[in-house]
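Usage example:
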Amino acid sequence: MIIKTYIAGPFDANNYLVIDRDSREAVLIDCSDFKQEIIDEIRNNNINLKYILITHGHFDHVLGINRMKKELNAEVIAPAEDLILIENINDHARFFGQEIIDIPTHDKTYDDGIDLRIGKHEIEVIRTPGHTEGGVSLLIGRNLFSGDTLFKDSFGRTDLYGGNSTKLINSIVYELFKLPDNTIVYPGHGNSTTIEYEKLHNDIMHYVKRG
Ligand SMILES: [Zn+2]
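Running the assembly step on the lines above writes:
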């Protein structure tokens, strides 16, 4: 598996191109801006981009969808519970002083029973509400794409529409921290990390009731 990281958009979100080495099938995880480098990588290496997968509906992760889809012709899959965020994207964008004219569109949701895989690697969708109601983390082999749920040393904010701190703690502690220690975490912003490191160092542990 090859994982390429592209930083793009107003808040430097990570977009990940995940490529199966054998079949050359790939997915793009989050799509925060138009990025010619991603298009070139796909075309120059005969990569078959199957899906654009959205971790959650915040505007800084979806702004590139329409223009990238036009070039790459891959289906866009979004979380059903976050469609309200994408459809009303300016409610969120205006909060950060932005105005979006080209509202991002999607083709399907994770609830549509899609056979998500690249080559022989199955893509597991883990529901991780809390940062947003519909937020998902995507597990491919031992690589976890955690969106804005889990960051290195930190975690996603819960004060925006649909955020819920109890749900976020449960998502991280009871869903993500049960994954094997050697799982590599690729967050929506910032550097990658591992589940083992985060269990020891992440700030969320200060909020977990002990005993
Ligand atoms: Zn977010």
